[in-house]
Amino acid sequence: MSIRTSLKKVLPPISITEQEALDAGDVWIESSIYQGKPDMQALRDIPQAKLSAEEQAFMDGPVTELLNMIDDFELGNGKHIPQDVLDFLGKNRFFSMIIPKKFGGLEFSPYANSTIVATIAAKSGAIAVTVMVPNSLGPGELLMHYGTTEQQDYWLPRLADGRDIPCFALTSPEAGSDAGAIPDAAIVTKGEFNGEEVLGLRVSWDKRYITLAPIATVLGLAFKVFDPDQLLGDKLELGITCALLPKSHPGVELGNRHDPMGVRFYNGTTRGQDVFIPMDFIIGGQKNIGRGWQMLVSCLGAGRGISLPAMGVATAQSAFKGTVEYSFVREQFGLPIGRFEGIQEKMADIAGKTFLLEAMRVLTTEGLGLGVKPSVVTAIAKYHMTELGRDVMNSAMDIQAGKAIQRGPQNTLAGGYAALPIAITVEGANILTRNLMIFGQGAMRCHPYLKDMVDLIHSNESSADAEFNKVLRKTVGFSVKNAFRSLGKGYLPFLRESESALPEVRKYEKRVNSISAKLAPLADLSLAVLGGDLKKAELLSARLGDVMSYLYGAMAAIRFYEQRIEDRKLALPYFEYAMQWSLQQADQAIVNFINNFPNTATRGLMRLLTNTYTNSVAGISDDLVRELSIASMQDNSVKEQLTHLVRVTPGDGNDINEQAFKAKHAVAHLLGKVQKALRKEPVVPFISFEHALNKLQEKGVVTADEAAKLHDYNEKRKLAVRVDEYTFDMELVPASQTLKAIDGGQNAA
């Protein structure tokens, strides 16, 4: 019996839906990480994505106008998105960023798409979700890639100008992540359409969690097709199929809503019972019956790699901006709270991860802009960028504390805190993405021979044995090279190469190469020892996926620092934190993987090959934490670059915080002068800052002009540290009114 035949009996079969998922998408720079040789030159050679003149004009025009129309607090208190906002979105083609210009769309780049969605998300999660859905997985993209000419010519112009609002229905109460198990079914039959008897499908479905369904005018629908009367051939089950149904079509039910965390985007249900549709409703026509799952998984890049990560980055930038500004202005015990080490630990984490997130956003969209659809990279982006956004938001909530939990127009965190879990659950919960997709697809797509081996193992061709043996020899050779590379770079540091011209980057690039070299033999040994069981060992495979992911993040940070930072001296602590954190996580994932590998002998070999004999992993120093937290409170180009997605609207919470932050920086030298004078000759009793300042002016310590600047700052500071308050009947009281009610500012914080 041949090796191939023996393996065929042992390995579990791959289902059609699994095979199509594995076949979907392209391989990009992640393959070099998996193979132990990160391609840093290819990374540096990727063309830099920038907004075109047309895209910048859209940002400066319609996007800015939209942000000025949005009151996210009022939106959260209401039931519906205002009709004028929905009309504005349609009129200005926010729903058509991916639709080609020949159909009336904007045809923007992935980088522009991400920047626009993230900028909106920083203001309102509800509006961002409303914009992102038509521009990610949905009828528009499916029509562009698979629709017939007639379908494209009719539907795409209508989707482009907002005459039609689309939704796409996949998830059902009985099947979420296991799309292959959807119970929604269609029977091939004949029926009447437009007064004629035609061949078609009688479809029944029950779907939930469908974004935009309550206001959609056209429904994309996924279901299984059966042909019991064999009208199309001799097969009974024809597979998952995608169709496009107008809301006005008889039997289509759209309208009922869910309430996702009080975030007022439209999300709801759609149902239908024995609804007859002609074959022309199938996206791409009758020939695409059974190709639905393949169509879906090949079009996931936009949602997974652009829209959902954009929400994570927007959340982080908004939290970063509000928190560092608040921490600089808010004082306790005579010091800004950002000077206390407990706060600094959280602030440094916020700042470093925000740098990492922006770097990953830029690199991922640059890759998509090349025309590739890297399924592994987009899964990495979806999982880690939404999770990092959640980490940053939670740290910001800890720092802002009471201010963060009081709802109102001045709260800059509440909207993101409520909306981000939505991004984490969409398009497969993050648990699924991390535990099944990243390494599961990564191993099959990034290994140079594994997919061929699996295909040959399950092949029934007579030549399969001979072809398999050839591939097996190549695989063994590949694994041996991986083992020696890991040994060399693990024990001999001088073998770890770096191509960077920057000394501060070279040490980290060498670590990236060393960790990647360790990943390759770990993956090889896991596949050799566990085989098909590795698919079920989710805790183990997820850790290998984590190593790939954190190395991808580190490569993104290197590229971002080298190519997009103008003042590297200012950005160095951000970069160092992002790199040290990413590589620490990758090292820890390797330690945890080896410690939990079930085979003792293999575990020992893994330790030898990777030079991993300890559970200790290098952490981030307190000195770097202190340095980065202080740096993050400076008003400079780096802070501006890492908060560029947050557009300040006059009078909103971000505006109030920013005014106080900038005012304090402007009078910092005067505050030092006042503090020195008060230490020398205290004002007793110290009724308020205003009172003390007036006394110092009387003594000639500060001039009238200096006192005016300090009083102006103090008024802005008091407003920034206050929170929204209401009457007993929950009517909002303007902050300016509450401040006036305070006699002489005696209660100023």
From TrEMBL:
Reaction(s) catalysed by this chain's protein: a medium-chain 2,3-saturated fatty acyl-CoA + oxidized [electron-transfer flavoprotein] + H(+) = a medium-chain (2E)-enoyl-CoA + reduced [electron-transfer flavoprotein]; a long-chain 2,3-saturated fatty acyl-CoA + oxidized [electron-transfer flavoprotein] + H(+) = a long-chain (2E)-enoyl-CoA + reduced [electron-transfer flavoprotein]
Keyword set, alphabetical order: FAD, Flavoprotein, Oxidoreductase
Cofactors (names): FAD
Cellular component aspect of the GO annotation: cytoplasm
tRNA-binding keyword on record: no
Gene3D superfamilies the record matches: Acyl-CoA dehydrogenase/oxidase, N-terminal domain, Butyryl-CoA Dehydrogenase, subunit A, domain 2, Butyryl-CoA Dehydrogenase, subunit A, domain 3
Protein EC: 1.3.8.7, 1.3.8.8
Pfam families associated with the record: ACDH_C, Acyl-CoA_dh_1, Acyl-CoA_dh_M, Acyl-CoA_dh_N
GO molecular function: flavin adenine dinucleotide binding; long-chain fatty acyl-CoA dehydrogenase activity; medium-chain fatty acyl-CoA dehydrogenase activity
Domain Acyl-CoA dehydrogenase/oxidase N-terminal: 71-162
Pathway(s) this gene product operates in, as recorded in its UniProt entry: Lipid metabolism; fatty acid beta-oxidation
Acyl-CoA oxidase/dehydrogenase middle domain span: 167-267
Domain Acyl-CoA dehydrogenase C-terminal bacterial-type: 444-726
InterPro entries per UniProt: Acyl-CoA_dehydrogenase, Acyl-CoA_Oxase/DH_mid-dom, Acyl-CoA_Oxase/DH_mid-dom_sf, AcylCo_DH-like_C, AcylCo_DH/oxidase_C, AcylCoA_DH/ox_N, AcylCoA_DH/ox_N_sf, AcylCoA_DH/oxidase_NM_dom_sf
Gene Ontology terms describing biological process: fatty acid beta-oxidation using acyl-CoA dehydrogenase
Family to which this protein belongs: Belongs to the acyl-CoA dehydrogenase family.
NCBIfam families: PRK09463.1, PRK13026.1
Protein known as: Acyl-coenzyme A dehydrogenase
Originating species: Alteromonas macleodii
Classification of source organism: Bacteria, Pseudomonadati, Pseudomonadota, Gammaproteobacteria, Alteromonadales
